[in-house]
Fold this protein.
Amino acid sequence: MAGSMGPWILVATALSVVNVSFLLVLTLIWVRNYRTFGSEMTAGLAVFGGAMILENLVAIYFFFSSGMLYVDSHRVQQLVASLRALQTVALAFLTYVTAK
């Protein structure tokens, strides 16, 4: 289905890949911190990171397998890409402050 995907869904897919990268870094930091400090907060953050990784991977799968859900609406494609971009900005900032 990738051939019928619009350019905005390709952008959304690329942003989801970037999001997974940020989330992997964050989750590894949080797991390391949990092992060091044993804090329930860091355990919760690690579980949150894992759930968000899974959500982004499922999104990537659906963009490729169910691209036809978005094909008819250029506006929906833009909104999906915008939401992924918003998540990317938030994760970039969170990764920056967490890694400091």
